Give the backbone structure.
Amino acid sequence: MKPKTIIEPFKIKSVEPIRFTTREEREKLLIDAGYNPFLLHADDVLIDLLTDSGTSAMSAKQWAGIMNGDESYAGSKSFYRFEEAVKKITGMKNIIPTHQGRAAEKILFSVVGGKGKFIPNNTHFDTTRANIEFTGAEAGDLLTEVGKHPEMRADFKGNMDVEKLEDYINEKGVENIPLCMITITNNSGGGQPVSMQNIRDVRAVCDKYNIPLFLDACRFAENAYFIKLREPGYSEKSVLEIAQEIFSYADGATMSAKKDALVNIGGFLALNDDNLAMEFRNLLIVTEGFPTYGGLAGRDLEAVAQGLEEVVDEHYLEYRIKSVEYLGNKLVEGGVPIIEPPGGHAIYIDAKRFLPDVSPDKYPGQSIVCELYLEGGVRAVEIGSVMFGKYNKNGKLIPAMMELVRMAIPRRVYTQSHVDFLIEIILEVYNTRKKLKGYKITYEAPMLRHFTARFEPVS
Ligand code: F0G
């Protein structure tokens, strides 16, 4: 018999206590933080779902790698191990380590971006968009229609709309498009996967116009596992083989190793083009470090190399994807509106449907985020009009397309009982949602305001 219970595929060797607080304490702490959980001390949080980035628990072998790190400035043994591990998955010729994903993006777009350039993607993550726009280029999101509807279920809601891609190329001019990107999984669209077929279709359009294809590959293993589960023809293939096929369609990739390489810091750029790689390395030396460490210590490179081996383990991925799905399904059973189906690394509450009476200018997502903290010491993040809202000329809010609350699940950190506790807290907040009236902003920075904004409840 195949047991129905999916267990954490690890034993726990080292533990980190989490700190319990009372509701009264949390009320005070939240006021001090200006009702912005980004401004809380992490020690005052019981279950921290702010991000899945850099928050993984490393394995005993990764920690052993840390001790084995070769800290030579040039040509470190750890670099060659790292390079081999990245090449095994991506098949790419040039592997350039960076300190995290956005450093890879910064180098990539400093070289290929600039005023008058346009970069299409299924959905750009905010650092990718910021790095593109910083150079004067424009970032275009071409998500498939179904991906924009939180309540609709589909297997690959992260896909790019291939017809829109062709229109985009014709409208902007092929000479103005230095590359096309696909983000796997599509973080900003709910952690939804992209199908192999879609990657092939995008590749075909890129080939037609001679445009290089780059992947934002942060969560490539989770995406590959979804392909194995959902796409015809892949159930018998290993996740490693599926990942290798994904990368075979790309000319390059940026990666934040803080996600699917199961480390606390790290990233890389991978690409086939030698001339571009030379330009990237020249910039790397100015901004990150010598090409065989690129902003990381030798020990970090060891941990990434080991993490990349572990992340394609299918027992791990089954536990990972099923535990996120378990949380999502229990919330749906309790009536909580979420982006369906659950994504790979996070559950996204649909705050518009959760609090239909709280208008976007009262920030329904922020209300839920604050209440989750007050109720259970849980930290989540608003991804809606606080994060993406803009103002028109008259100072009126132009709301974001969606009002979401993201609960990102760190890798290998929480167990099923943590998840059961979470479910209880979220259902309680949902069942008492009538008391939530919204927030107003009392301070905001001119850019990326969500990190430092301060709020007050509206009555
Ligand atoms: N691309 C995607 C799809 C991401 O999710 C992230 C980071 C990055 C690029 C940038 O990588 O943080 O290493 O510089 N996402 C984190 C998150 C911050 O919480 O979703 P980085």
Summary: The CA atoms of residues 212 and 252 lie 8 Å apart.
